[in-house]
Amino acid sequence: MSDETEPTELSRRALIVGAGATAAAVGGAIGFRAVAGEQTPATGVPALGAQQAGVTRPAMPQQHCLVVVADLDTTALRTTLGALGTQIALMTDPSRGLADLTPDGPGDLTVTVGIGPGALGASGHSELATLLELPEFAGDAALPADRRGGELLLGVNASDPTILEPVASWLMEQVGGARMRWSEFGYRGTPVEGVGRNPFGYFDGIIVPRSEQELRDDVMIAEGPLAGGTICVMRRFRLDVEGFRRLSPAERDATVGREQATGAPLSGGARDDQVDLDAKTPDGALLVPARAHARAAHPSFTGSALMLRRSYSYRASDDDHGHLFISYQNDVQTFARTQLRLDETDALMAFATPTATAAFAILPGMRDGSDLGASLF
Length: 377
Description:
- GO terms for molecular function: heme binding; metal ion binding; peroxidase activity.
- The protein is 20% helix and 18% strand.
- By secondary structure, the protein is of the alpha+beta class.
- Strands 1, 2, 3, 4, 5, 6, 7, 8 and 9 form a 9-stranded antiparallel beta sheet that branches.
- The chain is globular.
- It starts with 11 loop residues before the first helix and ends in a 15-residue tail after the last strand.
């Protein structure tokens, strides 16, 4: 939602209207892989720990999310982050909670907080702001100013969509000088053996970190003031689903590089098998076409590490529905190199229009009685 006015306190009504969507729908993209059939513990998802909740725990992302991208008063950054952390720890604690926000208990509610380059620059480690520098990708030049960047990210996730708006609104009331840039409800469908489908109807997020070692190597920041944190890239894409569906089934598979029904790569094998980029037909044609998404996005072409993806679908209106791409990595260039390649060679990008873009430092978790963001000051 665009807001050109001076900073004001955000009402719950304004927040939910600004989101412009409901959370009731089918489909969705999937990120980090959980064991098939794994359920979220009934006792909830602990907010305290070396990492914030909502990045790697729960392992299977919840079915609904509300993303809020805003600006804030950076002169009060330490106080604001401390207040947010206190409220998050309280509202996600099943033994305490905030009854007016989650009357049936917090369930699997998680809240993930990130800050943008301006906020990092206002911390005690201003040099870290460069960690969030993104190049301009195809379509970014057409974005309005309030859809590029932002200084605060609140990712509120839960199986119960009715608690998202009151929780996000309450947290925004703790933020000094809050001015919302945009917000969006997201949803995802029921996963099949740990993987879900995107709005195009194809399995999404198959090449992902599969071990704790890969998470340490590629996703989490290992040292410095952000140790235990990560970098989130968020891109909102309006998708031309109708145009994509007008392609023949064979053309759709060739655009993606996988079979829709099974998710198997066109080079052969099962869904979770590696794509064989060199596989050819007897007459020498590539089995995975030169401009297929599975080829364009393959890490081998950019030398990139793996990204942890926890993306969602959204539907804001009849002519604005698509994909909330959310990835976590410990180097923003992991995403940047991949997206630049997609812009150049991916046939699927013809059906995707970026409508928002930003990068945030996801703060380390709270432990040993420390405030959220304390390591930055």
